[in-house]
Give the backbone structure.
Amino acid sequence: MRQFDFSPLYRSTVGFDRLFSALDQVSGFDGSAQTYPPYNIERTSENAYRVSVAVAGFSDRDIAIEVKENTLTIRGEKAEDKAEKKGEVLHQGIAARAFERRFQLADHVQVTGASLENGLLHVDLVREIPEAKKPRLIPINASAPKQVEAKAAA
Protein backbone atom coordinates (compact mmCIF):
# COMPACT_ATOMS: atom_id res chain seq x y z
CA MET A 1 0.00 0.00 0.00
CA ARG A 2 1.30 3.49 -0.82
CA GLN A 3 2.07 6.02 1.89
CA PHE A 4 1.25 9.66 1.18
CA ASP A 5 3.11 12.36 3.08
CA PHE A 6 0.50 14.95 4.12
CA SER A 7 2.88 16.65 6.56
CA PRO A 8 3.82 19.53 4.22
CA LEU A 9 0.14 20.37 3.84
CA TYR A 10 -0.53 19.88 7.55
CA ARG A 11 2.33 22.15 8.57
CA SER A 12 1.31 25.06 6.36
CA THR A 13 -2.46 25.20 6.80
CA VAL A 14 -4.64 26.52 9.57
CA GLY A 15 -8.24 25.54 10.06
CA PHE A 16 -8.09 22.28 8.10
CA ASP A 17 -6.92 20.30 11.13
CA ARG A 18 -9.91 17.92 11.18
CA LEU A 19 -9.35 16.96 7.55
CA PHE A 20 -5.63 16.35 7.96
CA SER A 21 -6.09 14.52 11.25
CA ALA A 22 -8.50 12.18 9.49
CA LEU A 23 -6.10 11.71 6.57
CA ASP A 24 -3.21 11.02 8.97
CA GLN A 25 -5.30 8.45 10.83
CA VAL A 26 -6.36 6.72 7.64
CA SER A 27 -2.84 6.63 6.23
CA GLY A 28 -1.22 5.80 9.57
CA PHE A 29 1.50 8.34 8.87
CA ASP A 30 2.85 10.87 11.34
CA GLY A 31 5.97 12.60 10.07
CA SER A 32 7.38 16.03 10.65
CA ALA A 33 10.20 18.05 9.18
CA GLN A 34 11.43 21.36 10.44
CA THR A 35 12.54 24.27 8.32
CA TYR A 36 13.76 27.77 9.08
CA PRO A 37 12.34 29.44 11.06
CA PRO A 38 10.77 26.85 13.34
CA TYR A 39 7.12 27.41 14.24
CA ASN A 40 4.15 25.95 16.09
CA ILE A 41 0.47 25.93 15.18
CA GLU A 42 -1.75 25.74 18.25
CA ARG A 43 -5.48 25.52 18.76
CA THR A 44 -6.34 27.85 21.63
CA SER A 45 -10.10 27.18 21.56
CA GLU A 46 -12.63 25.55 19.26
CA ASN A 47 -12.45 28.36 16.67
CA ALA A 48 -9.20 30.11 17.62
CA TYR A 49 -5.64 29.33 16.59
CA ARG A 50 -2.16 30.73 17.19
CA VAL A 51 0.85 30.49 14.91
CA SER A 52 4.10 31.01 16.84
CA VAL A 53 7.29 31.57 14.85
CA ALA A 54 10.78 31.63 16.42
CA VAL A 55 12.32 34.88 15.21
CA ALA A 56 15.23 35.38 17.61
CA GLY A 57 17.26 38.44 16.70
CA PHE A 58 14.48 40.09 14.66
CA SER A 59 12.61 43.19 15.80
CA ASP A 60 9.09 44.22 14.87
CA ARG A 61 10.58 46.53 12.19
CA ASP A 62 12.27 43.53 10.52
CA ILE A 63 9.07 41.47 10.18
CA ALA A 64 6.11 41.92 7.81
CA ILE A 65 2.81 40.03 8.11
CA GLU A 66 0.42 39.97 5.16
CA VAL A 67 -2.91 38.23 4.55
CA LYS A 68 -4.12 37.89 0.98
CA GLU A 69 -6.64 35.46 -0.49
CA ASN A 70 -6.55 32.89 2.35
CA THR A 71 -2.75 33.00 2.54
CA LEU A 72 -0.90 34.27 5.61
CA THR A 73 2.64 35.35 4.71
CA ILE A 74 5.28 36.17 7.32
CA ARG A 75 8.49 37.75 6.02
CA GLY A 76 11.60 38.61 7.96
CA GLU A 77 14.63 40.50 6.78
CA LYS A 78 17.25 41.76 9.18
CA ALA A 79 18.29 45.32 8.45
CA GLU A 80 22.05 45.82 8.71
CA ASP A 81 22.71 48.21 11.56
CA LYS A 82 26.38 49.03 12.02
CA ALA A 83 25.71 50.86 15.27
CA GLU A 84 24.37 47.58 16.69
CA LYS A 85 27.65 45.70 16.09
CA LYS A 86 30.05 46.18 18.96
CA GLY A 87 32.67 43.61 18.21
CA GLU A 88 33.85 40.79 16.02
CA VAL A 89 31.62 37.70 15.88
CA LEU A 90 33.67 34.58 16.63
CA HIS A 91 30.77 32.13 16.26
CA GLN A 92 27.32 32.83 14.83
CA GLY A 93 24.83 30.23 15.97
CA ILE A 94 21.76 32.48 15.86
CA ALA A 95 20.54 32.58 12.28
CA ALA A 96 19.48 36.01 11.11
CA ARG A 97 18.94 35.23 7.46
CA ALA A 98 15.91 36.47 5.59
CA PHE A 99 12.88 34.18 5.51
CA GLU A 100 9.39 33.92 4.11
CA ARG A 101 6.86 31.51 5.54
CA ARG A 102 3.39 30.98 4.02
CA PHE A 103 0.36 29.37 5.65
CA GLN A 104 -2.83 28.49 3.79
CA LEU A 105 -5.86 29.59 5.80
CA ALA A 106 -9.21 27.82 5.66
CA ASP A 107 -12.28 29.73 4.57
CA HIS A 108 -13.52 32.24 7.15
CA VAL A 109 -10.24 32.26 9.15
CA GLN A 110 -9.24 35.83 10.01
CA VAL A 111 -6.06 37.24 11.58
CA THR A 112 -6.99 39.06 14.78
CA GLY A 113 -3.59 40.26 15.94
CA ALA A 114 0.14 39.68 16.27
CA SER A 115 2.67 40.18 19.05
CA LEU A 116 6.42 39.77 19.40
CA GLU A 117 7.70 38.69 22.79
CA ASN A 118 10.82 36.86 23.94
CA GLY A 119 11.93 36.07 20.38
CA LEU A 120 8.58 34.51 19.41
CA LEU A 121 6.17 36.06 16.94
CA HIS A 122 2.59 35.10 17.83
CA VAL A 123 -0.11 35.51 15.18
CA ASP A 124 -3.65 34.98 16.50
CA LEU A 125 -6.33 33.64 14.18
CA VAL A 126 -10.04 33.01 14.59
CA ARG A 127 -12.52 31.12 12.43
CA GLU A 128 -15.68 33.22 12.08
CA ILE A 129 -18.37 31.34 10.20
CA PRO A 130 -21.05 33.67 8.73
CA GLU A 131 -24.61 33.18 9.96
CA ALA A 132 -25.69 32.04 6.49
CA LYS A 133 -23.16 29.15 6.61
CA LYS A 134 -23.90 28.03 10.18
CA PRO A 135 -26.17 25.04 10.71
CA ARG A 136 -29.70 25.98 11.67
CA LEU A 137 -32.69 24.12 12.91
CA ILE A 138 -35.76 24.09 10.73
CA PRO A 139 -39.00 24.17 12.73
CA ILE A 140 -41.60 21.62 11.81
CA ASN A 141 -45.06 23.07 11.44
CA ALA A 142 -47.37 20.49 12.87
CA SER A 143 -51.03 21.32 12.43
CA ALA A 144 -53.34 20.75 15.33
CA PRO A 145 -55.07 17.40 15.21
CA LYS A 146 -58.49 17.64 13.62
CA GLN A 147 -61.37 16.37 15.61
CA VAL A 148 -63.92 14.54 13.59
CA GLU A 149 -67.40 14.58 15.04
CA ALA A 150 -69.29 11.42 14.50
CA LYS A 151 -72.97 11.84 13.79
CA ALA A 152 -75.23 9.44 15.49
CA ALA A 153 -77.19 7.31 13.09
CA ALA A 154 -80.90 7.88 13.43
